[in-house]
Amino acid sequence: MAKGKPTQAEPACRLYLVTPPALEPAAFAPLLAEALDAGDVACVQLRLKDCPEDDIRRACDVLRPIAQERDVAFILNDHPRLAREAGCDGVHVGQTDTPYRDARKILGNDAIVGVTCHDSRHLAMIAGEEGADYVAFGAFFPTTTKTAEYKAEPELLSWWSELMEVPCVAIGGITAENCAPLVTAGADFLAVVNAVWGHPQGPGAGVRALNAAIGAALAGSAG
Ligand SMILES: Cc1ncc(COP(=O)(O)OP(=O)(O)O)c(N)n1
Ligand SMILES: Cc1nc(C(=O)O)sc1CCOP(=O)(O)O
Ligand SMILES: [Mg+2]
C-alpha cells in the first residue's frame, strides 16, 4: 500500500488482508506467502488481540519480511510504538486506541497510519483532516471474526470517495460474492479476514476469488 490514492498502474480497488485473530507465526508463514503469491494484495495487517507484546513482536519478526519482500505493506493493529520498533510500515488505530495524533508522532510522517471510523462521516472527516493515510468504514456485512457494533452502508463509500482524496477501506464480512457494491461505490481497499484465511480451497484461492470479483465489478462499472 503506497501512501495516497492508487496510481494508474494499480487497480482502483485493492485487497487489504487482516490476519486471523489467533496464529502461530511459523505455521502461518507459508499460508501468508501463499496468499501474497496468489495475486495483487496492497497490505497485510497483523491483528493479534489480547496477546502479550513479546508474542506480537515475534510474529512481526517472522511475518513482516514475507510481506515486505513482496512489496506489500505490513501494518500492525493497535500498537504504534511496537510497530515502529518492529520495522512495520504503519499502524491501524481505532477510536478507543492510541489517538491518531499520538500514533503519528510515534511513527513519523513516512509511516502509514489508518483510522477506524465505523459508520461515521464525522469521525472520517476528523481523521482525514488530521492526516490519516486512510479511513476505514464497517462493518458492511455480518462478520464472525469479531463483534461488530456498527453497520455501514455502501453509500458512505460513494459519499466519501466523491468528496475526499484520502483513501477509504471497507471492512466487515466481505466476500467475493458480496463485494461488488462496495467496489462500485468507491472503496479503495477491501479488508478481509475470513474470506481469505477461511476459504475452503486455501488462502491463495481466497485471494484469487476476491481479485476476480473486484476486477469484474470494476469492469462492470466502467461501461
Ligand atoms: C482496516 C481495519 N479497519 C477497522 C479495524 C477495526 O479497528 P478497531 O475498531 O480498533 O478494532 P480492533 O480491530 O482493534 O478490534 C481494523 N482493525 N482494521
Ligand atoms: C477487524 C474488524 N473490524 C471491523 C469493523 O467493523 O471495524 S469488522 C472486522 C473483522 C473483519 O473480518 P471478516 O472479514 O472475517 O468479517
Ligand atoms: Mg483497535
TrEMBL record:
It is an enzyme of class 2 (transferase). Its EC number is 2.5.1.3. 4-amino-2-methyl-5-(diphosphooxymethyl)pyrimidine binds at Q45, L46, R47, L48, K49, N77, T116, K146. Pathway: Cofactor biosynthesis; thiamine diphosphate biosynthesis; thiamine phosphate from 4-amino-2-methyl-5-diphosphomethylpyrimidine and 4-methyl-5-(2-phosphoethyl)-thiazole: step 1/1. The keyword Metal-binding applies. It comes from the Bacteria. Residues 15-196 form the Thiamine phosphate synthase/TenI domain. The keyword Metal-binding applies. One of its GO terms (cellular component) is cytoplasm. Keywords: Magnesium, Metal-binding, Thiamine biosynthesis, Transferase. 2-[(2R,5Z)-2-carboxy-4-methylthiazol-5(2H)-ylidene]ethyl phosphate binds at T143, T144, T145, G173. Binds 1 Mg(2+) ion per subunit. It catalyses: 2-[(2R,5Z)-2-carboxy-4-methylthiazol-5(2H)-ylidene]ethyl phosphate + 4-amino-2-methyl-5-(diphosphooxymethyl)pyrimidine + 2 H(+) = thiamine phosphate + CO2 + diphosphate; 2-(2-carboxy-4-methylthiazol-5-yl)ethyl phosphate + 4-amino-2-methyl-5-(diphosphooxymethyl)pyrimidine + 2 H(+) = thiamine phosphate + CO2 + diphosphate; 4-methyl-5-(2-phosphooxyethyl)-thiazole + 4-amino-2-methyl-5-(diphosphooxymethyl)pyrimidine + H(+) = thiamine phosphate + diphosphate. CDD domains: TMP_TenI (cd00564). One of its GO terms (molecular function) is magnesium ion binding. Mg(2+) binds at D78, D97. GO terms for biological process: thiamine biosynthetic process; thiamine diphosphate biosynthetic process. HAMAP family: TMP_synthase (MF_00097). Belongs to the thiamine-phosphate synthase family. Condenses 4-methyl-5-(beta-hydroxyethyl)thiazole monophosphate (THZ-P) and 2-methyl-4-amino-5-hydroxymethyl pyrimidine pyrophosphate (HMP-PP) to form thiamine monophosphate (TMP). This is Thiamine-phosphate synthase. It comes from Azospirillum lipoferum.
